[in-house]
Amino acid sequence: MRKRINYSEFFNYKLPNSKKWLINEEFLKTFKEELDRIFKIYEKEENPTYWNTYAWLESTGGFYEALKIASEKHNVKKAIYEYACKLPWYKSDIFDSKLTELMYENKIIEEGSVDGREEYPTLEQLKEWEKNGEIKWTEEITHYKGYYVTKKDWEFIK
């Protein structure tokens, strides 16, 4: 019989304190250096941040290779790397996220934003751009069984 996932357990997973204190600032710096080396970060990204780079590396083979090397260098391979490898997928996803969040919290990486911009334009900015002829609004209507969905967006005028 297949084991059911207990979703309350999924949402309540927290990094154990016995592991947390081993993942110190020096460990996180080494981990970041290994991620940069394995993924050739600085060859691809001018200003890598949590949102535009590191969050997207979680749960990959390269992420775990970097974790393994950092764990070996800091003599915590069994306590960190092997622990992470034994976690069920839903807990390992949270563990991976916590590692990259800790790099941000310890100021090893910057938070940034998903698209590299510091912020999204406000409605006032969009209205001003439209008034100046810099953007135009687009509308896409999709028909589904018995209802329509209207998607509105904007784009720069070339």
What does this protein structure show overall?
This protein is of the alpha+beta class. It has two domains: 15-105, no CATH class; 123-156, no CATH class. 49% of the residues lie in helices and 13% in strands. Strands 1-2 form a two-stranded antiparallel sheet. α3 crosses α5 and α5 (61-73) packs antiparallel against α6. The radius of gyration is 21 Å and the shape is elongated. The N and C termini lie far apart (59 Å). The mean pLDDT is 87.
- Specify Rg, calculated over alpha carbons: 21 Å
Apparent shape: elongated
Which whole number gives the mean pLDDT? 87
Total of DSSP H or I helical runs spanning 4+ residues: 8
Strand order of the largest sheet: 1-2
Q: Biggest sheet: strands, sense, closure?
A: 2 strands, antiparallel
